[in-house]
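Before relying on records like the one below, remember that each one covers exactly one chain. Contacts with other chains, cofactors or solvent are not represented anywhere in the record.
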Amino acid sequence: MDLTHAGAFITSNVSAAGENYEGTEHSDLIILTAGCRQREGEDRRSLLDRNVSVFKTIVPPLVQKSPNTLILVVSNPCDTLTYITWKLSGLPASHVFGSGTYLDSSRFRVGLAKKFNVNAQSIHAWILGEHGDSSVPVWSGVTVGGLSMTDAIKNF
């Protein structure tokens, strides 16, 4: 629904799937956000069995209605569900991708930007690994305004 409400700011037609997935026919991009909510104290990996069951019912009919689509997986555990989505879809591997650590990397950049009092676009930094508890920051690759982290600390 958030994407639909952003329609005034984008040039594409965005719609949410209706019953029996009507309205999704011939989609260029499908964004999968479906899945079970994480329980308190539960790690993302524990969601896997429950969310695989959900994806088994969602992915095949979506691909049947949009056989040339790209699929972006946002649900958790993201990396594993992206692989499972690819297998369930029958699409080429290049057509199925996940948000993975993209959001983690963005949060990392924003946090560093606040510390250095610069715009987050001036920070280059990445989180690697699987999205969630097992991801790690790549401190040796951080740059601030083109300076290495070590030089940035000296100059800011």
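The chain has a mean pLDDT of 88.
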